[in-house]
Amino acid sequence: MASGLSPDVLEKLNQLRASLAKLPSVLVAYSGGVDSTFVLAVAHEVLGPEALGLTTSSAAVPTRELEEARLLAADIGARHLVVDTDEVAIDAYAENPTNRCYFCKDNLYRICHAEAESRGIDTVIDGVNLDDLGDFRPGLDAAREQLVRHPLVEVGMTKEDVRQASAHLELPTWDKPAQPCLASRFPYGTSISRSRLGRIEEAEEQVRALGFREFRVRFAGENAARLEIAGAELERATQADTHDALVAGIRSAGFAEVVLDLRAFRSGRLNEAEN
Q1: pLDDT at 267
Q2: CATH of the domain at 209
């Protein structure tokens, strides 16, 4: 989808290009989401082979998301590296405290810096945007400690700016819903294991197979799951046939009890109690 840009967003995009052009080389912490895909695309446009995207592969990353990240990087033409990791092996992460994301990002950025150093890459950057600074994001502490730069923040780009600019650059992620890691489906204090992550991934694949686009399957107990669906799709989920198919699909992932939350899905609900 090509689109025109407002003068304000065009100016920010050009500032981003100019900022990246000043760097000899960059390694982009790249997940395949809206923001990091945009950053990788612009970095590749400006720096060519001196831009490298790095994606980690683990039980917390849905297989579908990893494959989409591979395909996106290939479509952009950017260099791309996938590194296996295991956040669940980090005790502080597996215990799932309120600052769990700190341990995830700390692990990610250590991997990024190690690869950057081994390849002679100058700077590690990510896709944090201006709106992220107002959210509960412990991972920002890890970025600050490890001197990871946020080029979108530096030029004042919001999430909406990134979506508009992504559409202008014809990136297919311009309207992609947020897709945080699978660990975000667990209430704080509920321990995370590879098997539990796998069951959540399987349940969400069942929901996606029924044509739903924006939703979460929340872990509500060893045998219970709560399904949240975006407002635009919620009515369809309550129709008898679809409702029965949703329940059957989630039960097939090992959740005997399935609850449909009649509140429309909203990203960030997990953090409401922390703000």
Answers
A1: 66
A2: 3.30.70
The SS3 call for residue 108 is: helix
- Structure confidence at residue 265 (pLDDT): 79
> Cα-Cα-Cα-Cα dihedral of 166, 20, 67, 201, to 10°?
-80
pLDDT score of 275: 39
| Cβ–Cβ under 8 Å, residues 31 and 127 | yes
Whether 181 maps to a domain, the answer reads no
- pLDDT value at position 135? 83
Domain match, 89 and 214 both? no
Low-confidence ranges of the chain (pLDDT < 50): 1-2, 273-275
Residue whose C-alpha is closest to residue 121's, from 39, 32, 28: 28
Residue 139 located in a structural domain = yes
Sheet strand arrangement including 215-221: 215-221, 224-229, 257-260
Total domain count, the chain = 2
23 DSSP assignment:
S
CA 153, 110, 177, 34 torsion-angle sign = positive
Q: What is the pLDDT of residue 273?
A: 44
Contact, 101 vs 74, CB < 8 A?
Answer: no
Same structural domain for residues 123 and 39?
yes
Task: Indicate whether 2 belongs to any domain.
Answer: no
Please tell me the predicted confidence (pLDDT) of residue 4. Answer: 76
